[in-house]
Amino acid sequence: ALPGPLAQEYPDKITHSLDSSASVAQFSPNGQLLAAGRGDDGTVEIWDLHTYRVMRRLEGHARGVVSVAWSRNSRYLLTSSKDFTCAVWDLAVEGRTACKRDTVWFPSPLTGAVFHPRTSHVILATLSTHECVLVDLRKPRKQGRWYLYNAEEGYSKSTGVTSARFTPDGQYVWAGTAAGDLMIFDTASKMLSPAANVDSPAPAPGADGAAPNGLPKITVHTSASASPHAPNGSLPPTTPTPAGADPGAEVDADAEGEGEGEGGIAIEHIYSDQIGRSAWTGLSWSPDGECLLAGSADKGSHKLFIWYRSGRGGLAKVLEDRGVGVEDVAWHPYLPLIASVSNNGRINLWSALRKENWSAFAPGFEELEENIDYEEREDEFDIVRALSSTPHSHLSCILT
């Protein structure tokens, strides 16, 4: 059931723990399934959130899985692995390996991959060599693969990209680099957008005094109100689409010409752990886009930080569990439910405990602070049967 309008917007307690060897996890867009990639043997587990049991196992990677991503209709699953491959699984087909629709090979191990927001035939992959690759699965290998880099300045294909995501409309690709910069590429032209290079402020030192390694994680909320924006409210200018080279042309035919204007990208908030000064292992948005979730990279504790996006971006809550650190985090698409993956592979599900309001159904209901011993009367629950005034006549009717 959907939460009420006045329900708590973020979880506060672990309600279930899933025994697994996962390294990454993601909720399906319909909110019914949880995909967990194992980092030891390359197996992918599909958990049913109603029974909290594994309903399916996908076997097709030779090494550990580093990312899982769902298509928007919750039918296809994209997995990337250290075995140099990405796999697209069709969950409508039965079988552990028969449901593998596509397998994409790369020249190096992968660090992540995501679907295009509008089609499962276009994917975006990042490699361990800090390369960002856009792939159209409908075209031959040599024609349907583009490396995203700044060609105008003569950069090599390895531009230090550590993480990349599509914008909600699929028109742009946001790429974070190891130097802490944010680059924005046009999906149609495969070129760097004119208002694209965003220099991040100097990163705060980590717990050991060293600066974190650039931008290892990027997250983009799916709603338009929470999507990255320029100071004038528009996205970076749109580059005209060249003929015959557009895996994203089907994305938004009406978007051409929109978002024109000058200006760069404004930094809205800078979130950090002011006490522990730790880095982050995962990022995720709340369903309404008003809260940001991050997992602490501190190996000695299991901490999840939740910040508000509105106002000054203050800290809303810190969820903490004893034990090992956090590997990955994910927020349910429409419920106050969070999945956090521990270093030991266990998946913790955090949710908000609801307090039932019985007085809304029974006006005379009163909630007791303490138990009251009720003394039962001797004849309170005795069953008294009414005897007929003429039992013999009734009996005679039965016998005749």
UniProtKB/TrEMBL annotation:
GO terms for cellular component: Set1C/COMPASS complex. This is WD40 repeat-like protein. WD repeats lie at residues 58-91. Residues 249-260 have a biased composition (Acidic residues). SUPFAM superfamilies: WD40 repeat-like. Residues 205-216 have a biased composition (Low complexity). The keyword Protein transport does not apply. Residues 196-260 are annotated as: Disordered.
